[in-house]
Amino acid sequence: MSTFSIFLALIVVVAFLLVVVIMVQNPKGGGLSSSFGGGGTQQLGGVKKTTDFLDKSTWTLATLLLVLILLSNVAINRGGDNLDSKALDADATTTAPIALPDVPAQTTNDAEPANNTPE
User: What whole-number distance in Å separates Cα of residue 4 and Cα of residue 59?
Assistant: First the structure.
């Protein structure tokens, strides 16, 4: 298992945890849900310590996700040491395209079948 695969697995796990933590949080303010009459029911069961924990864990997971994404760039296998473009190299040899033989086009009338015998 490569280093990039490990980073990729960690990124998926952290992203899933971040989605779960965000979905668990209670909405803080009047947003769209309070416009439709849901504003009074959002305060039921809200605990200040839980909100602080979820808020801190959201920022921690978001920062961890960003760091993992940036570090995974270092771990990508680039496949070789030569990263230069051959399009910019003046000494690079190119192959000519293969010339196909000319094939005469056959035109036939759709109403009459093609007859190759002379009359």
Answer: 24
